[in-house]
Amino acid sequence: MEKTLMSAIHTLEKEVADTQKRIDMMISNGSSSYDTQHLKVKIRRCRCQLNELKFQNANS
Questions:
Q1: Alpha carbon of 31 to those of 7, 16, 27, 34, 53: distances in Å?
Q2: How does pLDDT run across 18-42, given as a tens digit for each residue?
Q3: Which domain of life is it from (predicted)?
Q4: Could you tell me which of 45, 55, 52 has the C-alpha nearest to residue 16?
Q5: Which CA distances in Å does 11 have to 4, 26, 35, 37?
Q6: Which of 25, 27, 16 is nearest to 49 (CA)?
Q7: What's the whole-model pTM score?
Q8: Residue range of the domain that includes 51
Q9: What is the number of domains present in the chain?
Q10: Cα dihedral across residues 48, 56, 13, 51: positive or negative
Q11: Using CA atoms, how far apart are residues 42 and 22, in angstroms rounded to an integer?
Q12: Is the pLDDT of residue 59 over 90?
């Protein structure tokens, strides 16, 4: 189970990093903050899930 948790944590961390790169790219190409808002929400959701998984991993 620990490997599954670690794999999920790694996947979410990669998703957060990739989404942040996408936001940075969009902003550098002239997109507004409004255009990237849905991606920022996605990052917040992923970080919340990450915190939950890290807590589960610490308690197991």
A1: 33, 19, 5, 8, 33
A2: 999 999 999 999 999 899 999 999 9
A3: Bacteria
A4: 45
A5: 10, 22, 25, 22
A6: 16
A7: 0.85
A8: 2-59
A9: 1
A10: positive
A11: 12
A12: no
